[in-house]
């Protein structure tokens, strides 16, 4: 295994993590923006108003996207274990 193979596996790993975490992060961003607009319109500056809905949305987003996350990480681990089993690319 040479440096190019290591960089390829690192790139695939980083890409898999970004793809797996993307839906939950996008959901947290959308919920945060909606709450920020609501706070700006009503001038309510309660700290728990920002955290509690985001935590609930993130939890529900993780539960909803768990099959997608599992499939992404399973595909990555299959490629890595095949690479280990073959002794290189």
Order of helices and strands: HH
Distance between the termini: 7 Å
Helix content: over 70%
Sheet with the most strands?
Answer: none
The value of Rg in angstroms is 19 Å
Which structural class best describes the helix and strand composition? mainly alpha
- Please state the overall shape, judged from the principal axes of the Cα atoms: elongated
Low-confidence stretches: none
From the structure provided, what is the oligomeric state, counting identical versus distinct chains?
A: single chain
Number of domains: 1
Strand % is under 5%
**Whole-number average pLDDT?**
89
Record field, number of beta strands: 0
Q: Count of helices? A: 2
Task: Tell me what you see in this structure.
By secondary structure, this protein is mostly helical. Helix content is 90%, strand content 0%. Helix 1 (3-42) packs antiparallel against helix 2. The radius of gyration is 19 Å and the shape is elongated.
Name its key features:
89 residues; mainly alpha; elongated
Which helices and strands, and how do they pair?
Layout: H1 3-42, H2 47-86
Helix pairs in contact: 1-2
How do you describe this structure in short?
By secondary structure, the protein is mainly α.
């Amino acid at each position: 295994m040479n440096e190019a193979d290591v960089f390829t596996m690192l790139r695939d790993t980083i890409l898999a993590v970004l793809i797996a975490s993307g839906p939950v992060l996008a959901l947290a961003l959308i919920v945060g923006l909606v709450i920020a607009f609501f706070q700006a319109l009503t001038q309510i500056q309660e700290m728990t108003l920002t955290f509690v809905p985001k935590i609930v949305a993130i939890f529900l987003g993780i539960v909803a996207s768990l099959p997608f996350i599992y499939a992404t990480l399973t595909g990555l681990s299959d490629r890595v274990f095949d690479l280990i089993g073959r002794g290189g690319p």
